[in-house]
Design brief:
Elements (H helix, E strand, L loop, with lengths): L4 H25 L6 H8 L1 H16 L2 H16 L2 H17 L4
Helix pairs in contact: 3-4, 4-5
Length: about 100
């Protein structure tokens, strides 16, 4: 196995850019006041990202996956994100176990 310096540099640069954007967001948020509309906008980002990831699965796969996507979407309206995802995973596992594919 050989070490390619260009590849190593690219990986380190991408890691640094990722860390910088995440840390800078946390740092800069300290100086921004979040009133009602801004807070609502920030809080709506995680469910929107979840639906962007889940929606293609609902339209491109079978009944079990589509039902699990619907369960995930409905759960995301009221439950924390991790619980919503877990509900979708459990739903698709159960539906596949009973033979819906």
């Amino acid at each position: 196995m050989t070490l390619d310096l260009q590849t190593l540099f690219a990986i380190l640069a991408m890691a640094a850019a990722t860390i910088l954007t995440r840390v800078s967001g946390l740092f800069l948020l300290r100086y921004v006041s979040l009133d009602g509309s801004r807070r609502k906008a920030i809080e709506s980002i995680p469910p929107a990202v979840l639906m962007a990831v889940v929606a293609p699965t609902a339209f491109a796969t079978g009944i079990a996956e589509s039902a699990a996507c619907a369960v995930t979407a409905l759960a995301a309206l009221r439950l924390p994100m991790l619980v919503s995802v877990a509900a979708g995973v459990v739903c698709v596992a159960l539906l596949r176990a009973i033979g819906l594919n």
